[in-house]
Write a structure and sequence with these properties.
Elements: H1 3-15, H2 38-43, H3 68-73, E1 79-85, H4 88-100, H5 106-116, E2 124-127, H6 132-138, H7 142-154, E3 162-164, H8 176-183, E4 187-189, E5 204-211, H9 215-226, E6 232-239
Parallel strand pairs: 1-6, 2-5, 5-6
Antiparallel strand pairs: 3-4
C-alpha cells in the first residue's frame, strides 16, 4: 500500500475504530482482513475436501464424479464450490450482504476466496441475474456485487452474459423438485455481438450468494452450455 494510504487507514482506525463483524472485537491496523479477526475467520465452516469433483457434495458420494447427487441432477457445470457453510457466521455474512447492503464485507470475502481457490484467475465472472422487478425492489443484485469483488481480487473481467426473463417466487422454502420447476426457462443469454468474442473454452465462473440444491446455478449453466461454452463452473459464498 502507498504510504499516504497507510497513514489515512491508521488515522481512520484511531478516529473510527473498526470492529470484527463476527465478534465485535476491535481490529488493529495490519491484520489480513478489514472486518474480520483471525479467530472468526478460523471459526467459519469451510467445506474442505469435497467428495465429488463436480458438485462438491460432502455427503453420500464416492471420491469422484458422478456421485449420487450428480447422477440425480445432471449438472451442466464442471465444478461447484462454496467458500463456507451457510450456518453460524457464514449465514450472518450472507444476510448482511443480501438484506442489509453489507458491501463492506466483500473485499475480505474476495481475499478469502483467493486463498481457497487460487486457480480462478484464468476466467471470467458471470453473476446469476435477478429479475428487473426484484432488482428494482432490492436496489441491487448481491451476486453482481460478489462478482465485482472477485473480479477485483483476481484481476479478471465481469461479464453479465445472462438475464432473468421471468419473475417467479423466491426459491426459499421450496423443495428440490419445486426449486427446479421454479427456475426452468427463467434465464437467457443476453443478445450481444460481444458474445462472439469470448472463446468457447474460457473458464466461466457463475457466481451466486448461496448454493442450496444447485437448481438456479444449473439452469444458468445450461443456458451457457447450449450457447457452446464448455468450461462453466459454479461458485458461491455459502452452501446451504
Ligand atoms: Zn472476530
Ligand atoms: Zn457430485
Amino acid at each position: 500500500m502507498e504510504p499516504i494510504k497507510i497513514l489515512a487507514a491508521r488515522a481512520l482506525d484511531v478516529l473510527w475504530p473498526r470492529r470484527c463483524f463476527g465478534c465485535h472485537c476491535r481490529l488493529q491496523g495490519d491484520g489480513p482482513y478489514l472486518y474480520f479477526c483471525r479467530r472468526c475467520v478460523g471459526d467459519l465452516d469451510f467445506p474442505f475436501a469435497p467428495t465429488c469433483s463436480r458438485c462438491g457434495q460432502l455427503r453420500g458420494g464416492r471420491s469422484d464424479c458422478p456421485c449420487r447427487n450428480c447422477a440425480r441432477n445432471h449438472f451442466s457445470f464442471r465444478s461447484c464450490r462454496s467458500l463456507f457453510e451457510h450456518s453460524g457466521l457464514g449465514r450472518r455474512i450472507v444476510h448482511e450482504i443480501k438484506y442489509r447492503q453489507g458491501r463492506f464485507l466483500l473485499p475480505d470475502l474476495g481475499r478469502l476466496c483467493r486463498i481457497f481457490f487460487p486457480q480462478m484467475g484464468d476466467g471470467i465472472f458471470v453473476p446469476v441475474p435477478i429479475h428487473w422487478r426484484r432488482r428494482w425492489q432490492r436496489g441491487f443484485n448481491q451476486s453482481d456485487w460478489i462478482c465485482q469483488a472477485l473480479a477485483r481480487e483476481y484481476g479478471c473481467p465481469v461479464r453479465r452474459l445472462l438475464w432473468r426473463r421471468c419473475h417467479r417466487r423466491p426459491q426459499v422454502g421450496l423443495g428440490r423438485a419445486d426449486r427446479q420447476r421454479n427456475v426452468e426457462g427463467a434465464f437467457a443469454l443476453i443478445p450481444n455481438l460481444f458474445l462472439k468474442k469470448i472463446a468457447k473454452d474460457v473458464p466461466i465462473y457463475l457466481v451466486d450468494d448461496v448454493l442450496t440444491t444447485g437448481a438456479t446455478l444449473n439452469e444458468c449453466a445450461k443456458v451457457l452450455a447450449r450457447a457452446g461454452f464448455s468450461n462453466v463452473h459454479a461458485r458461491t459464498l455459502a452452501r446451504g
